[in-house]
Amino acid sequence: MQAVGLGSENMDNYRFATKAYLGIDNIHVMRDSLNRVFDTLKESDITPLAPNREALVRSGWLKHIAGILDGAALIARQVALQHSHVLIHCSDGWDRTSQLSAMSQLCLDPFYRTIEGYITLVEKDWLSFGHMFHHRSGFLSSEKWFSVENERIGGGTNDSHTPRTSLGNSSSAGHAIENAFLSAKGFFNKDNNSRESFVDSDGELQPYDQSPPSKKTSSGSGSSNRNRDLQDKGTTKVKETSPVFHQFLDATYQLLYQYPTRFEFNERFLRRLLYHLYSCQYGTFLYNSEKERVDSRVSEKTRSVWDYFLSRREQFLNDRYDATVDDNVRGSERLILPVTGEVRWWSEVFGRADIEMNGSGLVAPPMGGAASPQRERSGERGGRKAETRYHNDG
């Protein structure tokens, strides 16, 4: 695996450092986990009952969020308390690496907990760093996609008399994020090119409106092959989609909930940012890299999503925010660390009432057993893991 740029370092070459496997699963596991959440919520739409909380726990979503927070806390402790350098990497460096790097900086530096600071963090560790928003979010350059999705976001029908259940259905717009993510599965099933997918590339469902793709033949003109390559660049590859940035926002929400006075922005700021990730109303999250955005002159042709937030800044301010930073005053320290045992459902982003998903006292599932971070760090589970290497400066 190391011959193709994968695998893990031989620590005999880094005797001054310690390697830690963080056990954060790959993009396919995360995609499946969110799909399980959506399936559970959709089942509750046809009944007057709240979502099945046991099914929500079985989705593993909270476990994954807790795992990201646990990794970020490890990094933050090493930097802030042990005064160590930390090197973070996964298979490619644009998914779990961005999650851990950004979340640890959010824990370490109060600046990133301001509106301007959070914008800087996203620009720096996600957009400039090369997170593939186009592939991961399933943006489709197809008129069919946009026309179908508009119907789905609008409720799937123009019939105003379509019955709706009373519990858990505040508005059809609450399903927009789900539709945008899941509908990508239905239109394209392209080959996967990213290293994140080398671990388990099998088992993907065939799209519902297409027959299995035919095998390539050696015949055909070079121009047709070039046209096909250009078309592939503008379409969604199902196995590339994954809620990586969604998880980062969810992890941020957990910190905001646990430290409600330490963030300048409110929950609605995060929710609207997730919405506009999929809305394509702004050019900020288009394409897969900064180079592609520059080559396509996105800044000239579109507006930035940050214009939207900064022009109505007062709507996203946290009225409980305390900007005081004093390491000698309890509650005002520079460093904040997540409490992974108190991870909860971000019910607002799913358009649900808090009591429907969190109930009374529902927190993250137990971290023991096969999914415990202790076992994952010890390397007992297979597959590629995000990892950190650090050494103590003393």
Topology, number of strands:
3
* Unreliable sequence segments: 155-174, 183-219, 362-394
Sheet/helix structural class? mainly alpha
Radius of gyration, whole Å: 22 Å
Q: In percent terms, what proportion of residues is strand?
A: under 5%
Proportion of residues in helical segments: 40-55%
The biggest beta sheet, please?
3 strands, antiparallel
Enumerate how many helices there are, as a single number. 17
Molecular shape: globular
- Give the CA-CA distance, first to last residue: 34 Å
Q: Compute the average pLDDT.
A: 77
The largest beta-sheet arranges its strands as 1-3-2
Order of helices and strands: EHHHEHHHHHHHHHHHHHHE
What order do the helices and strands come in, and which of them pair?
Elements: E1 18-21, H1 27-45, H2 53-58, H3 61-80, E2 84-89, H4 96-108, H5 115-127, H6 133-137, H7 143-153, H8 176-182, H9 184-187, H10 222-233, H11 244-258, H12 267-279, H13 290-295, H14 298-301, H15 305-311, H16 354-357, H17 373-377, E3 387-392
Antiparallel strand pairs: 1-3, 2-3
Helix pairs in contact: 3-4, 3-11, 4-5, 4-11, 11-12
Question: Care to describe what's here?
Answer:
- This protein is mostly helical and 394 residues long.
- The protein is built from 17 helices and 3 strands.
- A 3-stranded antiparallel beta sheet has the order 1-3-2, with helices on one face.
- The two termini are 34 Å apart.
- The relative contact order is 0.19.
- Mean pLDDT is 77; it is low at 155-174, 183-219 and 362-394.
